[in-house]
Amino acid sequence: MPLTHLPPPSSRPPRRRSRQIHVGSVPVGGDSPVSVQTMTTTATTDTDTDTTLRQMATATAAGCDINRVAVPSQDDADPLPRITARPPIPIIANIHFQPRYVFQAIDAGCAAVRVSPGNIMKFDDKVKEIAKAAQAACVPIRIGVNAGSLDERQLVKHGSATPQALVESALWECSLFEERCFTDLIAVKHHDPQTVTSAYRLLAAQCDYPLPLGVTEAGTPVQGSIKSAVAFGVLLSEGIGDTIRVSLSAPPAEQVKAGCQILQSLGLRPRQLEIVSCPGCGRLQVDIHRLAARVEAAFEGFPKPLRIAVMGCVVNGPDESRDADLGVSCGNGKGQIFRNGEVIRTVPEHRIVEAALLEEAQHLSP
Q1: Helices (H) and strands (E) in the chain, counts
Q2: Cα separation of 82 and 144, whole Å?
Q3: How many Cβ atoms from other residues are within 10 Å of residue 54's Cβ?
Q4: Handedness of CA 173, 210, 229, 222 (dihedral sign)
Q5: Measured on CA atoms in the order 235, 241, 247, 251, is the torsion positive or negative?
Q6: Residue 6: pLDDT band by 50, 70, 90 thresholds?
Q7: Which residues lie across from 21 on neighbouring strands?
Q8: Which of 55, 60, 212, 269 has the highest CB neighbour number within 10 Å of its CB?
Q9: What is the mean predicted confidence (pLDDT) over 303-330?
Q10: Considering the entire predicted model, what is its pTM?
Q11: How far apart are CA 335 and CA 353, in angstroms?
Q12: CB contact at 8 A, 304 and 364
């Protein structure tokens, strides 16, 4: 059986039982699939609205389920009706400074609102009104705590943004809404993966909120993806986490691709395209890095889930190629093509991608 279609490991512990909410059309928590979020890097002002919509469309095409936008000013709040009217996925409004933007976001049709915890004490006299408006519109409120927005009392008590400080701060902030009979999403983020895993374990044991996972300010694409994969891999393998965001210093679509890859690697999302390629060694008789990149580019957006093996020598290549849906093992200027474990043909090196792999992929069952 090709690896693409293998069932997920049976050793994974049960999913943490959380209440289920809906962010627009996307269920979060309960037994719903783990969703992928991102956040636009553009302003939502009138002059930037089209740019924001294009960025959302690119992220959606990459596999995004939920998109967030920043609303720090009135100029950002005013175009929200136009933004929520067009995207095919739900929009969360990140509200930072003024509680009146919460009401505007709800009226504009945002699927959820994230209240900046660093300002929640300033919102205290408005929490009852916010909870009432959100309840009436069935709009979840997301409470998110990280090292940069920790309650100052917790910093005094714990000395730094420890896991305990993050959790205590988050639960206190949620209690303000619980007093008004309204609760929904809660997150505790940090830039250190070990702090993130510890904090979410503590939080998961103390509440049944759906949990959005994130390593905040994770860094550049390579470093940030690794840090996020480490934290998410541990937590999701323990059944903790209901939606994820990979926070990279990279375009939103790249964040989404990294998130989808993490879920696919854990068996939590159907596999799409996966390239299995060797790192290279002195036995190579082909430019394996260039060949793997060509294969990846050629199959981007392919309508069937595929695992393609790209091997650069005849030592391990043939057997490793047989374990994929499609494979090629290179040597002496030629490529041996495999499909579902069977040798199909041998072609010249320059014909491997377009004339062989792409053609053979059409014969695979969906």
Answers
A1: 13, 15
A2: 26
A3: 12
A4: negative
A5: positive
A6: very low
A7: 28
A8: 212
A9: 79
A10: 0.86
A11: 10
A12: yes
